[in-house]
UniProtKB/TrEMBL annotation, chains A, B:
This is Glutamate decarboxylase. It comes from the Bacteria. Pfam families: Pyridoxal_deC. The keyword Repressor does not apply. Belongs to the group II decarboxylase family.
């Protein structure tokens, strides 16, 4: 490969001159724009390549000394990176929450980098700041449905914050629990507040030995991470068992009362609107009432399920969310925005003040800079992507997307139920469901399959999932799931039916492939 | 404006059919690619528009009901957003750390969104995971310069982590202090470690009343934010005064000894390699020794200055950084990568285990998934942008960029020193400097300007900075700065000379405009 020379000319060129139309990078861009599906299926090698083999191409820990021509590097990226990436656009990649995106995001991504704004501060973002505030307002209204006067008062107020954009649900949950923690331990005489004096003083002044969060065992792992980060400790996260996949409000209440009796305090209850594994929704309305009884913060992690609010038909699945003190949303999930568009919303526009901070050269007091109540500092203008989607798809467009995803999940559930070799493990509440290979004769014999049989089924399902992934035609994920029927968790396939390009034929093909893979396993015939 | 209908056809089109070549969005893309400077200067209104006026265009808190055609929305973005954004590419926008980027990032941004990988997990990122690990390894080697065997052992090991990518320096600093906190309070008999049992138990079991961080008053505001988040409290961040802009290692040692004597513990010392306000570098080598004496973590915030290591000539400004336990770098600063490319590096590849977490459906134990030691969860493949830059620019390219930035800063300092109306306040150490308008006769009269005169100068400089910003031809930022000469902080202009497109003519034009603006102020003539 030829090498460019590190001259000021070469440098000046990469900063000022676009690649010619015949350059490799320009060709790649043209192909990307012309037909993304073809580009991806044409360049990504479908069969799984062992990770160890891929690592060999990325094993040099020395920064290259000499510059490289852009075209040479573009070809290198195609050969070594693109070819071995994951085709998330594919209608048969239904194992995770990443799906095909609308085309306009390709062009907008270019615009975003061309503008390269920094949202931490108005001086480096100008109109992007009001835009982000508007988008937060739109999502806030979608969730909390306050009246027009409320939004006119708070949307652009320097002392209000309807929420914060961030890279994803993990940071959104952290931001919410951070606010909840700081509000739970307000200043007292001699104590300036936790933000200033820290948790150790806070717990002594408030005379409590525990500051607990109650959630479901199905809660996202970011909750435990947040407990660690915030200094509360994972042991203060009370994850209640959920054989029915959702929290029982009475159990939450009892656990909360017990914590209070033991000298602790409940800092927050976290309800989930769309669990990562099965898409279940906690009884938000009743949990809000329990939070009110326990006088604690009520957070709803709607990273996955939040977009359901766009659907007139299914939005009521989330009823009670409007009573939450804070809500996590991920626009890069069911809102079809590129990776990196998380949000936390606060019911009370003043809640963010519990974590507000300032600095002299940046984030001056009274300014409308967005960085003063967020976990992150410098951030890009990702809000533009959601803004564009909200306008180009509109509420009705999102409604159609949500409705057809749910319809597809029900269709897939029906296909599974009708198939001799499969067992539906969790019904779709949103567009997620879990199922497993399980021969019909086993299910007929008794309502309850023996532990030994389940262990064999676990092994079988694990192997089939792996082999299907390796073959590269389609991808479903797997997890281990507790349920009402069995003592032990069982291994299941997990699918997310959010890709609007996925057809019934795709779903049938996936089942067919799994059944064929199973038939080839000695285990299958022994069952 | 015409409205699209929310039909499945419309939806299917936005997911599958690119815009035609004559569409507004395609036209925008063509213009962007052909000449970014022209696109930006042609579309961005240079004069400052009052924020309140911009907000009027972003004041609707209702999600639009109907879909919109892509072309209509693209024109709307141009008119309302792009026109009122900040021209960070401009060679005369030298007030903040955002600068022009190499052209190839425009195309790569498109590729990144087309691929839409999620780095939290190998299943949704494949080759992007080894790539990110390699990039972390390259930066690790640039900082810590371990031998080849070290990198071959740790680069792709499931139990090692050379660092973490994140959205920016704020998260990187948080991640570093999180690791430092958890390592400072290891498990004891009856205590399972802070991660599990929390800070309250940790401090009781370890029998300490304070867990302190010592840094300079010039430290980034994210340090205080991290103290709040981690539950330590901002009051445990000891920000030592720095009239010379850098930490005095002896003062750090004394403060540390005092904390120990009072029953506290020093958790970390934070050194800065390139302060946000003036670009100064703390004496890293001596601070490392103090950290060793106090037996605490040594973190270096090199978000700005880290890239200096690429320069043979100037790299030694950071000597001692290789003794740090952790280092923050921002590739979106002096490495010319789009916004959102922060990193934290750990000297000890096992340090990250202090915050390692797992989940069943994701981040299985023993996997190489990148999400298990990071603050963030889902993340995009931004590492590709840095990977491309490291290859296309090479170390030599970065060296040239760094060297010419510093040369430019020295040139600008000279222009300021030669100009009758200006006073250089801080010399450039890296490519940042501060100065102010200050008539020559005031400086001649005495070494020390009176407080009353300084107050007038503060007001004058504030007004000139504002008027220059509003005129829109160029932008310098301002801050208030403590220094050795005066009791009170003074208001200064702050410039960052990282844009390779900035010429000496640009710098002269900026000074000329400021001098002319000053001459028009009644205050100027009264001084």
């Amino acid at each position: 490969m030829s090498q460019a020379k590190a001259s000021l000319e070469h440098l000046y060129k990469v900063f000022t001159k676009p690649e010619g139309e015949d350059s490799r990078l320009a060709q790649i861009e043209t192909q990307l724009s012309a037909n993304l599906a073809d580009f991806l299926s044409g360049h990504i090698v479908s069969e799984e390549i062992p990770l160890e083999k891929i690592e060999q191409d990325f094993s040099r820990a020395q920064v290259p000394e000499q510059p490289q021509f852009v075209s040479d590097h573009a070809q290198h990226l195609l050969d070594k990176l693109v070819s071995k990436s994951v085709n998330t656009y594919s209608p048969r990649f239904i194992g995770h929450m990443t799906s095909a995106l609308p085309y306009f995001h390709l062009s907008l991504a270019k615009l975003l980098v061309g503008l390269n704004q920094n949202l931490v501060k108005i001086e480096t973002s100008k109109a992007f700041t009001p835009l982000e505030r508007q988008v937060l307002g739109m999502m806030h209204r979608q969730v909390f449905a306050n009246d027009e006067a409320f939004y006119q008062q708070h949307l652009h107020s320097a002392t209000s914050s309807l929420g914060t954009f961030c890279s994803g649900g993990t940071l959104a949950n952290l931001n919410a629990l951070w606010v909840a923690r700081n509000r739970a331990l307000p200043p007292l005489s001699g104590f300036r507040g936790i933000s200033e004096d820290g948790l150790f003083s806070a717990m002594r002044y408030h005379d409590i030995n525990q500051l607990a969060v109650i959630s479901s065992a199905r809660g996202h792992y970011s909750l435990a991470k947040a407990m660690d980060l915030l200094g509360l400790g994972k042991s203060q996260l009370h994850k209640l068992d959920c054989p029915k996949q959702t929290l029982d409000p009475q159990e939450v209440l009892h656990r909360g009362q017990k914590i209070l009796e033991e000298g602790g305090r409940v800092m927050a209850i976290v309800g989930i609107a769309g669990t990562t594994e099965t898409g279940h929704i906690d009884p938000l309305d009743e949990l809000a009432d329990v939070a009110s009884q326990l006088n604690c913060h009520f957070h709803v992690d709607a990273a996955w399920g939040g977009a359901t609010l766009f659907s007139t038909r299914h939005g009521s699945l989330l009823s009670g969310i409007e009573k939450a003190d804070s809500v996590t949303l991920d626009a890069h999930k069911q809102m079809y925005v590129p990776m990196g568009a998380g949000m936390v919303l606060f019911k009370d526009p003043l809640a963010g003040n519990a974590v507000r901070h300032h600095a002299q050269y940046i984030l001056r007091q009274g300014s409308k800079d967005l960085g003063s109540t967020s976990v992150e500092g410098s951030r890009n203008g990702m809000a533009m992507m959601l803004y564009a989607s909200l306008h180009i798809l509109g509420r009705q467009g999102y409604e159609l997307l949500i409705d057809q995803s749910l319809a597809k999940a029900h269709k897939f559930a029906q296909l599974i139920n009708e198939h001799e070799d499969f067992e539906l493990v969790t019904e779709p509440v949103l567009c997620l469901l879990t199922y497993r290979l399980c021969p019909g004769h086993l299910r007929e014999k008794s309502k309850k399959i023996s532990d030994t049989h389940n262990q064999h089924l676990d092994e079988l399902n694990r192997m089939v999932q792996k082999q299907q992934r390796e073959a590269g035609h389609s991808f479903v994920s797997r997890t281990r799931l507790s349920n009402e029927t069995y003592q032990q968790p069982i291994t299941v396939f997990r699918v997310v039916l959010a890709n609007p390009l996925t057809t019934e034929q795709d779903l049938q093909a996936i089942l067919k492939e799994q059944a064929e893979l199973a038939a080839r396993q000695p285990l299958w015939t022994q069952l």
